[in-house]
Amino acid sequence: YWEPGRHLAIDESIIPFTGRAREIVEIPNKPDPIGFKAWQLCDNAYPLDWLFHARGTNYNAGEGPQDLDPRWRLEEGWSPTHGLVLELLHRQVDGQRLYPPNKHYVWFDNLFITVRLLEQLREWGIAAAGTVR
């Protein structure tokens, strides 16, 4: 059993793999630039939860972040990038949120930061901040 700390982070990561697979991506600025892409929610660099990323950006064809609840995009109009943040932070077990209000700060890079996303997280009682360009 693990109790997450106050400071969490969401970012993309590469799971190193040099074999053959359709989903392999290459991101040159990563420490391990070739492998499978995943979106991770971490506490002190330890993954708490993650979503696999299918290569490509055509969400309607099953590409992009996997296992997103369709309501983020279809009902609420979020992009897949912002939907994955909401998905990771709104997970529930037995009807209880894993990341309850007023307990966590979440850090992002500029890929995720929008006023709308920060406002939504604030409504949920989750503090958030990150880099901007």
Automatic annotation (TrEMBL):
Source lineage: Eukaryota, Fungi, Dikarya, Ascomycota, Pezizomycotina
Organism whose genome encodes this protein: Zopfia rhizophila CBS 207.26
Listed name of the protein: PiggyBac transposable element-derived protein domain-containing protein
InterPro entries: PGBD (IPR029526)
PiggyBac transposable element-derived protein domain mapped to chain residues: 1-133
Pfam families given in the database record: DDE_Tnp_1_7
Domain of life, per lineage: Eukaryota
